[in-house]
Amino acid sequence: MTTASEKRAHRGIVAIGTFAPVCAGAVLMFLVLLASSAPVLAQHPAASPGDGAELPDLTITAIKPYHYRWSDEYGLAMGDPFFNLRNYVNVTVQNNGTTTAEVCKMALYADGDLIGSETIEDLGAGQARELKFPWTPEGEDPLSWTDTAQGAKLSYRNTSRIYTLSAVVDEDEAVQELNETNNELTREQKVVWNGFAADQPLEEYAHDLLRGGMIITTGDAVYRSDKSRDSGTVYGSPYKINYNVQIPGSTKLARLYLYYTWAEPKSSRPKAPKIQLTMQTPGGTSTELRLDASYNDLKGDFLNFRFHAWGTYAYDLTNYVRANGTYVVTVENINDGSDDDFTDEYSFAAPALLVVYEDNTAPLREYWITEGADILMGGRRSDGGFLGLDSCRNSARFTGEHLDQEVEKAVLGVITPWADDAEDDLIEFNGRELGKGLYNGYFHAWRADLEGLSMEVGANEAQQGVVAIDVTRYLEPKNNEVVQGDDGDNMMPATAVLVVTYKEVAEEDGSGGSGGSSAKESAATTTSTIPSTAPATAVTKATRIIPRLDPGKEVAMVFQDMDVSLLALTAASSVSDAKVVVERVEKPFGIPDPSGIPYVFFQISVDHDEDASIAGRIEFKVATSWIAENRVAAEAVTLNRYHEREGWSALPTANIAEMENATVYFEAVTPGFSLFAVTAGPVTTLASPATPKPTPVPTPVATLPAPTVVVPATEQSTEPASTEAPGFECVVVLLMLVCGAFLFFRTRGIS
User: Fold this and answer.
1) Residue 317 burial by CB count (10 A; 0-12/13-18/19+): exposed, middle or buried?
2) Is the terminal CB of the chain with fewer CB neighbours within 10 Å at N or C?
3) Are 242 and 216 members of one domain?
């Protein structure tokens, strides 16, 4: 008979026999899993800064904000950042650790707003890397004014702003470091307004159509300086100017412009002159003139002369300039120093008299007058904030469409005080550079008579910059524009005019019908009566910004719903921030027709600051329906490029693919960019054709949803794939051990 104690002992032996294999299996599994997890554990060390682990240590060592360049030699910015201009911030990231940081991210903020971020790869121990971020903070002009009869009352408010720049590396703590508390650096930076930049486009004052013309003259006026105590600048010492005006007909309008400079501030506030102008007519009648409008500008809210004002005072003389003869204008400083709303010290260039006249014997003409004051100083001068030409380009637009009639001549005239014949001053019209150093009248008298426009600087030392130039070949049907740029000295674009003379329309057989044709009609009929217009496209203009072009490395852009389907650029040397514009256009007036039947015209421009040549490969498409309607072969389609001196030239063009029987794709190579024309003519063999592609052009992979698209560099994730940290298997083993123990003790409790 078995006793109770023997039964309990037997149950204990059975329980132990059951539990032992379970425990042994669990322990064995734990050891196996631990061994297999060793590589994973090595990737996730539970290290601390003091345990001797090999870890990186990322930190920001420098934040360098500047406009043009940072001087490491002096530790100073060559031009502090300015409002509304492209500035830069260089940030230095350093690895003070003992091993390489394979991938980390760095971000730059201004007052908490993200400026930009960059991914850094393979930053070795002890290495540093400098990153460059573009920065364009927005701000307002500190200058405003109210006009009175004798001058402008200027108002100034401090619009400068102090930003807190903050650079942070490994902000999301993706990298385990020796020190996690030194990833951020901050710096304060003041940003101000730079008035030397082109910030005040000239404004349109008048636009009309008449038979007549325009006269502009400075008479016998010369530059007057308050430093020399010249009359006209000193209280109680008036200055008289004689304008000998011969008007072919009757006056349509007349205007006088006084261009002042170096207006001395009062109590650190900008002030403009208080001037009384009096005009005496050839008949002896004298009239005090009232200021009609003023345009004022500051050099900039920085450096020693930041409160000195420059500007243009405009006076309406239409009711007084009526007869031929000499008009005498008296300029008088009427501030004895007691009127704190104005300065009592200033200088001025030779004032200009502008007269628009009507003459029934003259051709039909259309004119525009723009006026203003925009002081410019480029050339990377230290006293101008190191601005370049790109920031010092004043614009004047002659808005609206001109008359739809054949143009005989288009003449541009500008008055820009303190511009001269140096090569650092340039003029462009509708994007074409007319030349550098074109200005006349600074040192010597000058005169020019062009179709409908007469301009004169009547005396030496007028310190004027006057240009009259034929722009017929560059005239656009609407919204023409002149740009004046400064790249070394300083000047103030103030007046710009455009005079367009039209060809006379002949009558036919007394019927009164027009025997002439418009420029648009002429362009359509001088080539062919066969249809020459491409089908409408969804997008007619696109803009891309290419951050960088490396020498010899092709960068391609794909366009959708445009005549150009792909544009690839290859630069001879490094180019940064290239602006690419592709636009369908009509053939401009004055440009001859290309050879063959025209299909479409488009303009391509590639603008950049570097002196580098850029070639291109252009893929474009032509509708098969157009090819069929005009009865030409696809092999006869050619891309032509227009050059101002050489005219049209055919580019090597190849047929590369046909897509769904609706569109034929072509490719051509060009050495540069300007106006292009797609034409078709007799089949010819061109030298060095582009290599045909064996496969059709694929559906474009990048679309252009809006007229302006910036193409950023493609970002690829460089972070390693996420690896789950060990631990789950260990939990399973522990659960098995607990279950075994539970069974053991439960068995012992059974009676």
Assistant:
1) buried
2) N
3) yes
Buried b (16+ CB within 10 A) or exposed e, 394-417: bbbbbeeebeebbbbbbbbbbbbb
How many structural domains is the chain composed of?
4
Whether residues 185 and 209 fall in one domain: no
Judge whether 43 lies within some domain.
Answer: no
Could you tell me if 595 and 646 lie in one domain?
yes
- Give the angle subtended at the CA of 697 by the CAs of 691 and 698, to the nearest 5°: 145
Shared domain for 233 and 339, answered yes or no, is yes
| Per-residue confidence band for 516, with pLDDT thresholds at 50, 70 and 90 | very low
Q: Do 226 and 260 reside in the same domain of the chain?
A: yes
pLDDT band at 682 (very low <50, low <70, confident <90, very high): low
Indicate the residue type of 25: G
Q: Which domain holds residue 406?
A: 203-502
Taking the C-alpha atoms of residue 483 and residue 18, their distance in angstroms, rounded to an integer, is 97
Side-chain-side CA neighbours of residue 141 (13 Å):
16
Adjacent-strand bridge partners of 105: 119
Q: Is residue 250 a contact partner of residue 357, using CB atoms and an 8 Å limit?
A: yes
One-letter amino acid at 448 equals A
Average pLDDT, the chain: 83
Query: How far is residue 216's CA from residue 210's CA, in Å, rounded to a whole number?
Result: 17
Confidence (pLDDT) at 687 = 37
Distance CA 570, CA 53 (A): 48
Q: What share of the chain is helix, strand, coil (3-state, %, to 5)?
A: 10, 45, 45
pTM: 0.64
